[in-house]
Amino acid sequence: MKWLFKSEPETFSIFDLKKSPGGKNYWDGVRNYQARNFLRDSVKVGDGVLFYHSNTEPIGIAGEALVVKSGYPDPTQFDRKSQYYDEKATPQKPIWYVVDVKFIRACHEVISLRKLEKISALKNMVVLKRGVRLSIQPVTESEWTAITKLPEWR
DNA sequence: GCCAACGTTGGC
DNA sequence: GCCAACGTTGGC
Description:
single chain, about 150 residues, alpha+beta, six-stranded mixed sheet, DNA-binding
Protein backbone atom coordinates (compact mmCIF):
# COMPACT_ATOMS: atom_id res chain seq x y z
CA MET A 1 0.00 0.00 0.00
CA LYS A 2 0.87 3.63 -0.13
CA TRP A 3 0.72 6.16 2.71
CA LEU A 4 1.09 9.77 3.65
CA PHE A 5 2.88 10.54 6.92
CA LYS A 6 2.59 14.01 8.39
CA SER A 7 5.33 15.65 10.38
CA GLU A 8 6.13 19.15 11.52
CA PRO A 9 9.58 19.75 10.01
CA GLU A 10 10.68 21.58 13.14
CA THR A 11 10.25 18.27 14.95
CA PHE A 12 11.34 15.90 12.17
CA SER A 13 11.76 16.78 8.49
CA ILE A 14 12.56 14.84 5.35
CA PHE A 15 16.12 16.16 5.73
CA ASP A 16 16.34 14.81 9.27
CA LEU A 17 15.40 11.42 7.85
CA LYS A 18 18.03 11.78 5.12
CA LYS A 19 20.67 12.60 7.75
CA SER A 20 19.72 9.62 9.95
CA PRO A 21 22.12 6.64 9.95
CA GLY A 22 21.55 4.79 6.68
CA GLY A 23 18.77 7.23 5.91
CA LYS A 24 16.59 5.21 8.29
CA ASN A 25 14.62 6.11 11.39
CA TYR A 26 11.57 5.04 13.33
CA TRP A 27 8.38 7.06 13.09
CA ASP A 28 7.75 7.85 16.73
CA GLY A 29 5.32 10.03 18.62
CA VAL A 30 2.05 8.92 17.02
CA ARG A 31 -0.50 9.28 19.83
CA ASN A 32 -3.78 8.92 18.00
CA TYR A 33 -5.59 5.58 17.96
CA GLN A 34 -6.63 5.54 14.34
CA ALA A 35 -3.10 6.39 13.19
CA ARG A 36 -1.71 3.85 15.71
CA ASN A 37 -3.92 1.13 14.22
CA PHE A 38 -2.52 1.82 10.76
CA LEU A 39 1.07 1.62 12.05
CA ARG A 40 0.39 -1.55 14.05
CA ASP A 41 -1.77 -3.43 11.56
CA SER A 42 -1.59 -2.11 8.02
CA VAL A 43 1.73 -0.43 7.20
CA LYS A 44 4.01 -3.11 5.71
CA VAL A 45 7.61 -3.46 4.55
CA GLY A 46 7.90 -2.18 0.99
CA ASP A 47 5.05 0.30 1.31
CA GLY A 48 5.67 3.78 -0.09
CA VAL A 49 5.35 6.89 2.04
CA LEU A 50 4.76 10.50 1.01
CA PHE A 51 6.50 12.67 3.59
CA TYR A 52 4.26 15.67 4.34
CA HIS A 53 5.43 18.80 6.11
CA SER A 54 2.68 20.39 8.21
CA ASN A 55 2.42 23.59 10.22
CA THR A 56 5.22 25.25 8.32
CA GLU A 57 5.99 27.21 5.19
CA PRO A 58 5.74 25.82 2.63
CA ILE A 59 3.12 23.24 3.63
CA GLY A 60 3.02 20.17 1.43
CA ILE A 61 4.67 16.97 0.26
CA ALA A 62 8.40 17.22 0.76
CA GLY A 63 9.68 13.79 -0.15
CA GLU A 64 9.35 10.05 -0.41
CA ALA A 65 10.26 7.30 2.03
CA LEU A 66 10.02 3.51 2.10
CA VAL A 67 8.79 1.32 4.94
CA VAL A 68 11.65 -1.00 5.94
CA LYS A 69 10.22 -2.46 9.17
CA SER A 70 6.58 -2.99 10.09
CA GLY A 71 4.92 -2.08 13.38
CA TYR A 72 6.63 -2.62 16.73
CA PRO A 73 6.20 -0.89 20.11
CA ASP A 74 7.23 2.79 20.18
CA PRO A 75 10.24 2.92 22.55
CA THR A 76 9.44 6.51 23.55
CA GLN A 77 6.28 5.44 25.40
CA PHE A 78 8.49 3.73 28.04
CA ASP A 79 11.00 6.59 28.33
CA ARG A 80 10.21 8.84 31.29
CA LYS A 81 12.35 11.59 29.83
CA SER A 82 10.55 11.62 26.49
CA GLN A 83 7.75 14.02 25.70
CA TYR A 84 5.98 10.95 24.33
CA TYR A 85 6.19 8.99 27.62
CA ASP A 86 2.95 7.21 28.53
CA GLU A 87 2.69 5.97 32.10
CA LYS A 88 -0.08 3.56 31.17
CA ALA A 89 2.11 1.65 28.71
CA THR A 90 4.27 -1.33 29.69
CA PRO A 91 6.55 -3.53 27.55
CA GLN A 92 4.06 -6.36 28.18
CA LYS A 93 1.15 -4.17 27.14
CA PRO A 94 2.42 -1.49 24.76
CA ILE A 95 -0.08 1.08 23.55
CA TRP A 96 1.79 2.94 20.80
CA TYR A 97 3.62 1.69 17.72
CA VAL A 98 6.24 2.80 15.24
CA VAL A 99 7.44 1.60 11.86
CA ASP A 100 10.91 2.14 10.38
CA VAL A 101 11.15 4.27 7.26
CA LYS A 102 14.05 4.91 4.90
CA PHE A 103 14.77 8.04 2.91
CA ILE A 104 14.22 7.66 -0.82
CA ARG A 105 14.22 11.22 -2.17
CA ALA A 106 13.35 14.78 -1.30
CA CYS A 107 11.33 16.94 -3.65
CA HIS A 108 13.43 19.48 -5.49
CA GLU A 109 10.60 21.82 -4.54
CA VAL A 110 7.86 21.08 -1.98
CA ILE A 111 4.57 20.15 -3.65
CA SER A 112 2.39 22.74 -1.98
CA LEU A 113 -1.09 22.27 -0.62
CA ARG A 114 -2.31 24.86 -3.15
CA LYS A 115 -0.87 22.80 -5.98
CA LEU A 116 -2.30 19.52 -4.66
CA GLU A 117 -5.75 21.12 -4.45
CA LYS A 118 -5.59 22.01 -8.12
CA ILE A 119 -4.97 18.45 -9.33
CA SER A 120 -8.30 16.85 -10.23
CA ALA A 121 -6.97 13.29 -9.69
CA LEU A 122 -6.46 14.20 -6.03
CA LYS A 123 -9.85 15.69 -5.27
CA ASN A 124 -10.77 12.89 -2.83
CA MET A 125 -7.35 12.71 -1.18
CA VAL A 126 -7.63 12.47 2.61
CA VAL A 127 -5.05 15.16 3.32
CA LEU A 128 -7.09 17.68 1.33
CA LYS A 129 -10.30 17.07 3.25
CA ARG A 130 -11.36 19.78 5.62
CA GLY A 131 -10.78 19.08 9.28
CA VAL A 132 -8.87 15.83 8.79
CA ARG A 133 -5.98 15.73 11.27
CA LEU A 134 -5.02 12.08 10.87
CA SER A 135 -1.23 11.91 10.71
CA ILE A 136 -0.99 8.48 9.04
CA GLN A 137 -3.21 8.29 5.97
CA PRO A 138 -3.70 5.72 3.21
CA VAL A 139 -3.00 6.99 -0.31
CA THR A 140 -4.57 5.32 -3.34
CA GLU A 141 -2.43 3.98 -6.19
CA SER A 142 -3.87 6.57 -8.57
CA GLU A 143 -3.09 9.39 -6.12
CA TRP A 144 0.42 8.02 -5.70
CA THR A 145 0.93 7.87 -9.45
CA ALA A 146 -0.40 11.39 -9.99
CA ILE A 147 1.87 12.80 -7.28
CA THR A 148 5.08 10.93 -8.04
CA LYS A 149 5.08 12.00 -11.68
CA LEU A 150 4.97 15.72 -10.86
CA PRO A 151 7.95 17.83 -12.00
CA GLU A 152 8.77 18.89 -8.41
CA TRP A 153 10.60 15.60 -7.86
CA ARG A 154 13.28 16.41 -10.44
C1' DG B 1 -22.94 5.52 27.34
C1' DC B 2 -23.71 10.53 27.17
C1' DC B 3 -21.67 14.79 26.60
C1' DA B 4 -19.31 19.09 28.43
C1' DA B 5 -14.86 20.50 29.15
C1' DC B 6 -10.50 20.33 27.82
C1' DG B 7 -6.33 19.57 24.88
C1' DT B 8 -4.35 19.18 20.23
C1' DT B 9 -3.76 19.77 15.30
C1' DG B 10 -2.65 22.38 11.63
C1' DG B 11 -4.00 25.86 8.03
C1' DC B 12 -4.09 30.56 7.92
C1' DG C 1 -0.67 33.72 17.33
C1' DC C 2 -5.54 32.66 16.20
C1' DC C 3 -9.05 29.52 16.19
C1' DA C 4 -12.12 25.87 13.94
C1' DA C 5 -12.41 21.24 13.95
C1' DC C 6 -11.45 17.35 15.93
C1' DG C 7 -10.09 13.65 19.61
C1' DT C 8 -9.91 12.43 24.50
C1' DT C 9 -11.21 12.50 29.28
C1' DG C 10 -13.99 11.91 33.09
C1' DG C 11 -18.19 12.97 35.93
C1' DC C 12 -22.61 11.45 36.01
